[in-house]
Structures
1.
Amino acid sequence: MAQQDDVFKKIVSHAKEYGFVFPSSEIYDGLSAVYDYGQNGVELKNNIKRYWWDAMTLLHENIVGIDSAIFMHPTIWKASGHVDAFNDPLIDNRDSKKRYRADVLIEDQMAKYDDKIAKEVAKAAKRFGDAFDEAQFRTTNARVLDLQARRDALHERYSKAMNANDLAELRQIILDEEIVCPISGTKNWTEVRQFNLMFKTEMGSTADGSMTVYLRPETAQGIFVNYLNVQKTGRMRIPFGIAQIGKAFRNEIVARQFIFRMREFEQMEMQFFVRPGEELKWFQQWKEWRLKWHKALGMGDDKYRYHDHEKLAHYANAATDIEFLMPFGFKEVEGIHSRTNFDLSQHQKFSGKKIEYFDPELNQSYTPYVIETSIGVDRMFLSVLCSAFDEEQLPNGETRTVLHLPAPLAPVKCAVLPLVRKDGLPEKAREIVDELKFDFATHYEEKDAIGKRYRRQDAIGTPFCITVDHQTLEDNTVTLRERDSMEQTRVAVDDLHKLIHDRVSLASLLRKLR
Ligand code: ATP
């Protein structure tokens, strides 16, 4: 774990050193849990968003996009339940003065039981070798059975307390499990309190009687309140989806792990409207499609898993997370929820406007059911960065730091490098840049020795370096160096466009989703 912590620290400092992510307001000592994206970060982020947007809107004829405002009528948040129920249960440790989410402390405790069980299994597997029967071991080993029973009991108690919103019971669980504060190491806990995560502000001048408005904590409500507009103007027929990318704000109390949990972040959400009764079929379908989208990036199939929700939100009848293996464990990157007709019904009730769909095939009207897919851009960014970061030992004993980014997501697709700064090589290199730059983010670099320039491009994940040398002037060929293998091949300048395009185009990625 300590080693993984080290890796994570390195990733965070690499992100800053190479212009991916900066702490917000850094010259004023920063603003907690708020970050800015730098020159390379913004490109990577835009590419992630484009990949998602195109996968939704180009590959599905029945999905369209919108861009709704961040400010919305405050009653929307009453209808959605966010004013009354968008709360986290908080607990403070009196000695360290640190604040925690009670649910997270308990979930971490459950993960500890899981870890202990996994360790026992791994130990036994090593001891018994090929003869090891894991299923039998899990059902007969006394220590594993005891741990599993304690874990299950905790899980049941926790789910009950969360569903009943029983704050006293959550505190009692923390005491009974003897959970200590990771900072002070003590069990000196306060009561558990509820804390609303929405940011409030005022709209209009106070003289006229201003109105309290909220910064949206999710983009989804902007889709629900536009359901009728889009359905009517787009003549959409069920099933159909509406996609949106935009900022969301949550006053997260426990902000940690870099851009994993931020107070201002970005979401990519899609609400898919279906016939009542068909929602679970569509839920399964979207679970599969979304995982495929992640896996197409080639970051390793074993780095993903589903995590079905134990506590279903009051409006949901099925929910799962897609988790990604970050250096700090498997963590939620995306949520897929079957939200029933809760949101549309609530807006119908609070607005007094009829929100229904007339289904010509069934010859009947109903309030559509909804499957939601909701992914955080920043968490996706973090998963890409973590999986790409590598300190590679080279045969000559050197270490190179390289980002093995999926090529279509890389901020810079190719760098054109004249071997020396004379003899007409810079001019020739510029000529090549002027051809490629219309289709690919292309860098020109002439400073420092060629090896050093390669390393700089490796560090930002540039898939291709094109080196212009004296031979280029004679036969119009260049050296094409590939980032991951570091292999160099001699290719004709005229072939560059196709060679690069085949590897870096978003279309190549989207085709994998067919
Ligand atoms: P968590 O349990 O981690 O607080 P959540 O279940 O509340 O997350 P959702 O409301 O389902 O998250 O939001 C959908 C997605 O938005 C999440 O999967 C995550 O990728 C992203 N997200 C949510 N909160 C944050 C945050 N504070 N910072 C960055 N991304 C976030």
2.
Amino acid sequence: MAKIKTAFFCSACGYESPQWVGKCPSCGAWNTFAQEIIQREPANVGNRGFSKKAHLVGDIVPESKPRIDTHDIELNRVLGGGLIPGSIVLLGGEPGIGKSTLMLQIALFIKDKTVLYTSGEESEQQIHLRAQRLGLTKAKCYILAETNISNIFDSAKEIKPDILVVDSIQTLFSDNIDSTSGSLSQIKECAALLQRYAKETNTAVFIIGHITKDGSLAGPKILEHVVDAVLQFEGDRNYGYRILRANKNRFGATGELGIYQMLDDGLKVVENPSEVLLSERDETLSGTAIAATIEGLRPLMVEVQALVGKSTYAVPQRSSTGFDLRRLNMLVAVLEKRCGFRLFGQDVFMNIAGGLRVSDPAVDLAIVAAIISSGKDVVFPHKNCFAAEVGLTGEIRPVQRVEQRISEAEKLGFERIFISQYSSIRSKNKEWKIEIVRTRNLFDLMKKLG
Ligand code: TYD
Ligand code: MG
């Protein structure tokens, strides 16, 4: 009989420890360890298999594995040009964000490949209804409502799919392990089994995973090690936009972005996001500015909104949606100190329109401009846009790939773009129709904005 072993796992980061500890040595969280039974087969000492020979890196013959076209340009781009057979991709996101919808859509629209879509969350009837909403076609897409991983593999052996979708890893369980589904040891075991299956049968596997309240994937360390790519699906549920990004990708660049819109009949690809995001704004109001950002490889124009008003509290409020609050506090402090723009006793609210979350430092200048516009209650010409970082001394710093930002702004009909004095534009002989305004510091910006 196999020996029963137990271990303790941190429920925040998945760190494994032989005894209980109060504070996790890996993530520092307190009181997060729980005991779980892990049943290991006895180590197979006698059978080490053939020992492998090491090769010089140049002598290795590359295996050519053509990528699978998922028929979704955004997903293809985020994956780095399509899905690799035998790879295992984790799709994470909050409940209700649209992970099942995205995967079912992919499963239905890939016509030349066989897909097995297994769900532990919904019944076959429910999935059928959803498929009808999405525009059910005669796709080779099999549906299986199952939570036992051995049964899933039995079906997979019969169907031999090119793509296997598992919704979700938290509902799966394996008989080898004695704990409930969703526990860390089950997740670990099921992910390992899926990985073995993917590599042995050369099937591409998508695993859907829910995100815990604090924004991390449950059991993130375990899953992120096992899988080849980690995709995150996010967005504000009250807006229609959803963003797909790669946090890890063994076969392509991370930082790529896919933008979708959730409609009644499923997720639709947003091909020119800047135009969609900018079409909904009122150009006669103060407190808005447009930032020329870059997400992944794509330029994206986003609207920044600020509201500055007299505070009724002793400590004025600073609030930010879609942007780091600490960075907003820093920009407010820089504005006060370097330009004498008094914000003491004033509430400052900031919002990135469309429910987007931006981390590109190039939005700094647009945020500052929006705050100035709202604080002074002046409307800046709406054909202005901004692309630069703001430093602690109030200097306006260059950002990467400024030419791409200028081109996008010009394409969308902007007339002026504010960039750093020190930005270097390499293609000297290119004629820009858009006026490029170089600014040195915030003082200079205020003067040029008028
Ligand atoms: P779902 O894919 O079930 O989310 P997840 O798997 O991430 O938990 O999506 C749920 C939401 O999507 C639900 O609130 C309804 C909405 N939705 C639409 O707006 N249009 C559609 O065509 C579909 C299928 C869902
Ligand atoms: Mg779901």
